[in-house]
Amino acid sequence: MSGAFLLRRLEVRDLPVRVAWMNDVRIHATLNIQVPVTLSGTEAWFERVRQNPSRADFAFENERGELVAMGGFTDIDSDVKKAELYVFVSPDLKGQGIGTRIVKLMCEHAFSEMGLEKVYLNTNADNVPARKVYEKCGFALEGVLRREVINNGQIKDRLRYAIYATPPPPGVGAVLNASTGILPLS
After folding, report:
1. DSSP per-residue codes, 120-181
2. I need a surface site. Which of 11, 65, 89, 93 has the fewest CB within 10 A?
3. Cα dist. 108→91, 119, 148 in Å?
4. What is the pTM of this model?
5. Residue 109: DSSP 8-state
6. Is 73 exposed, middle or buried (0-12, 13-18, 19+ CB in 10 A)?
7. Is the CB of residue 46 less than 8 Å from the CB of residue 10?
8. CATH code, 6-184
């Protein structure tokens, strides 16, 4: 897929598509949500969160005006200048590099438009495609949360990834490597 993506605020008109995507097994298999997701429940959620200053929800359109992904930032902390990123791509468009491009666009927006210094996310340890996207975008593994969530009836580990507007200097802080222990940041 070529062309740029338009990042815009999530709107009521996007909610039926959001519900359809979240009810698609290709999406909810990696999310820790209860299905089925309903339109009425999603409309109530949207009404609660749309004016919340600690979150920003977006829709992403291609050059033809078609929705290709949705995502956003939660737990926006303006004092620490950090937020948690979430994203999901249309189930029919997965595997085309769209997720990588959207995550990069979101990080650019977070750093240049929102003034954030850190963007972090949590993903299930067995969600290898997502992990590859995040690592390709420059996120580093910061920690492992053991036995953290139930997903599809199984208790799973979660991984914490982060990316910084300005990387910390060498030797400052540490990152947890699941196989070898704690390594200094480089």
Report:
1. EEEEETT-HHHHHHHHHTT-EEEEEEEEEEEETTEEEEEEEEEEESSPPPTTSSEEEETTTE
2. 65
3. 24, 10, 29
4. 0.88
5. I
6. buried
7. yes
8. 3.40.630.30
Which residue do the tokens 């605020």 mark? 9
For residue 81, give the nearest of 120, 122, 115 by alpha carbon.
Answer: 115
Q: Which two tokens stand for residue 177?
A: 């490597």
Encoding tokens for residue 178? Answer: 């699941």
Could you identify the residue written with the tokens 């910061």?
A: 142
Which of left, alpha, beta for 100 (phi over 0: left; psi -120 to 50: alpha)?
alpha
Encoded amino acid at 96, one letter: Q
What are the Cα distances from residue 155, in Å, to 45, 47, 86, 130? 26, 31, 21, 19
